[in-house]
Amino acid sequence: MTATMLIQLGLTGLVVALIPLAVVWRAQGAANKYRKLVWVTLFFTFDLIMFGAFTRLTDSGLGCPDWPGCYSHANPLLAHEHINAAQEAMPTGPVTWAKAWIEMTHRYFAMAVGFLIIVLMVAAWWRWIRSGKTELQFRPWFPTALLGFVCLQGAFGAWTVTMKLQPIIVTLHLLLGLNLLAMLTWLAARQEPHLPVSPAGRALIVPATLGAALLGLQIALGGWVSTNYAALACTDFPLCDGKLVPDMDFAHGFTLWRHLGMTSGGDYLPFQALTAIHWVHRSFAFVVILYVVWLAHRALREEGLRKTGRWLLTVLGLQLCTGLATIYLNWPLAIAVVHNGGAALLVILMVMLNYKVRYAPSGQAIAAPPATARPVTP
């Protein structure tokens, strides 16, 4: 790792970040620029999660087997000798030209998101101080926490590579990315006006919290399936290997600290362990689906929550279809990536629902306030 490489990497990430920053700059008014910056950062983080799924599903996580560069270079072109040698030795191995570019593109996007969050934090502090600490939508504590969180996410990105795709590290990297998305969604919700929520809607605080917890657990199980490459452990549905309860090895399947494809003792992971990982994710999905459908129907009764409830039902249906399609169509890459994106959308919607039931104005449903108005919420 050299200073020159780090500077080149930083400049590449900055160039990528300048594209959304240019969009934000065109907005009129300081408050509107900040609001747009939050939403653009949220959008880019969603895109980063989608591309991270593509990186993982194309087995490109070790396309550049060091970090943060590629064979100590800022891009694959400069590392052509090393990549050519690795590709000639193993044409279908973890290091090829395509996989190197996929991995480095993922890193460039991650650096761009980091730059956007830095700008977001600086903008929040600047506006907060200039307003005499009176404009609540610019409170800087949350954006500052976001910067610390994205640094932690970057550390797990490095460990993903240096620890050779160890499943627990890759899964935590995914979950931290989705937590970052959730935090940005919460911040975005604070910038928007919301329809009033009645006491009946406010009563959904606990059910919405439980829904978020169940969704988080299901996503963690899905991440464990993906990082252990267990998506095709069951190729039929609703049965698995022709059985309602197939032969499974839970002990090895859910041992968290072990190398990819290996048991904690260093032996090859038995197929029954992959079956257990897949079956638990599939079975728990029915619990989550039933609960979120019930929660969404409760939200549909409330004018201020109706739009979020409809989107929850829509995306949940998409998740069910793409999940089944990965089984029946033998795990096509595009559908697998969309399935990961659906999980990210559910996170956004669940966070929005939780924000609204807590901090939307109280009262009966009335017309939304003008777009220039900003809610004063914690």
UniProtKB/TrEMBL annotation:
Query: Keywords in UniProt for this one?
Result: Cell membrane, Disulfide bond, Heme biosynthesis, Iron, Membrane, Metal-binding, Oxidoreductase, Transmembrane, Transmembrane helix
Q: Which domain of life is it from?
A: Bacteria
Pathway recorded for this protein: Porphyrin-containing compound metabolism
Against Pfam families, the record matches this protein to: COX15-CtaA
Q: Listed GO molecular functions?
A: metal ion binding; oxidoreductase activity
Give the top-level enzyme category: oxidoreductase
- Entry's transmembrane regions: 6-25, 37-57, 108-129, 141-162, 168-189, 201-221, 279-297, 309-329, 335-355
| Annotated compartments | Membrane
Its Enzyme Commission number? 1.14.99.3
Topology in membrane: Multi-pass membrane protein
Q: Which GO terms describe its cellular component?
A: membrane
**Single biological process term from Gene Ontology:** heme A biosynthetic process
The record's PANTHER family line, in alphabetical order, gives: HEME A SYNTHASE
Q: Quote the protein name from its UniProt record.
A: Heme O oxygenase (Cytochrome aa3-controlling) transmembrane protein
Q: Which species is this UniProt entry from?
A: Herbaspirillum seropedicae (strain SmR1)
